[in-house]
Design goal:
Layout (H helix, E strand, L loop, with lengths): L3 H4 L8 E2 L2 E2 L1 H19 L4 H20 L7 H10 L4 H25 L5 H11 L10 H9 L4 H9 L10 H28 L9
Antiparallel strand pairs: 1-2
Helix pairs in contact: 2-3, 3-5, 5-6, 5-9
Protein name: Glycolipid transfer protein domain-containing protein
Keywords: Coiled coil, Transport
GO cellular component, one term: membrane
């Protein structure tokens, strides 16, 4: 059986064309990213994962309600605006904020092989998601960040299959994770520019 990153849909495989980011494949990959928080600590990161999955569901509901007008995320947002709605538009924006936070934290960890996850996630939170949180929202995330597992433990979990057997070397894992994060970052930055083009001031920090 495959280790985690090979068992879920990858952002590497999400089609991106002139019309935009494929909605269905994006949602599949988004669910895979949300599952990473189970590896980080199911209880401590419950609120973080719940926030992500809740926003994924908002986007999915809009897609299912208007499939022909929602084949890409950009079309989904544009047509929801025409219909004078914004639930999925807001949900996607918050989802992308969460993705920026997660992506940047793991990129920091990848770039500095000695940094612990707690420090990587704290730095990323301050630069991304934390700028959008109120003082009422920050305590839950602070609690989760303080509960980050040791770097070595997390990377070992990423390399294991569902039976707990390591089937991927750390070098191979690092290469795969870099590709996964690069594809995710490209999508987030593309949609960040798209939202800014709609006139929303700094909707996503990356």
């Amino acid at each position: 059986m495959a280790p985690y990153l090979q068992s879920v849909s990858s952002f590497v495989d999400v089609p991106v064309a002139d019309a935009g980011v494929d909605t269905v494949e994006f949602l599949k990959a988004a669910e895979g990213l949300a599952g990473i928080f189970d590896l980080l600590g199911g209880i401590a990161f419950k609120a973080v994962k719940s926030d992500l999955t809740g926003n994924i569901e908002k986007v999915r509901k809009r897609y299912e309600a208007a499939r022909e007008k929602s084949t890409t995320l950009e079309l989904l947002v544009q047509n929801e605006k025409v219909d004078k709605q914004n639930t999925a538009t807001d949900g996607l924006m918050w989802l992308l904020r969460g993705f920026a936070f997660t992506c940047k934290a793991l990129q920091i960890a990848q770039e500095n092989k000695t940094i612990e996850l707690k420090a990587a996630f704290q730095k990323s939170y301050a630069d991304t998601l934390g700028k959008h949180h109120t003082f009422l929202m920050k305590p839950a995330f602070t609690l989760a960040l303080n509960a980050c597992p040791y770097r070595a433990v997390f990377y070992e979990e990423l390399a294991k299959d569902p039976n707990g057997v390591s089937t991927l070397s750390q070098d191979a894992l690092g290469e795969e994770l870099d590709k996964w994060l690069a594809a995710l970052a490209a999508i987030v930055k593309r949609l960040q520019a798209f939202y800014e083009g709609l006139g929303i001031k700094n909707p996503i920090q990356f």
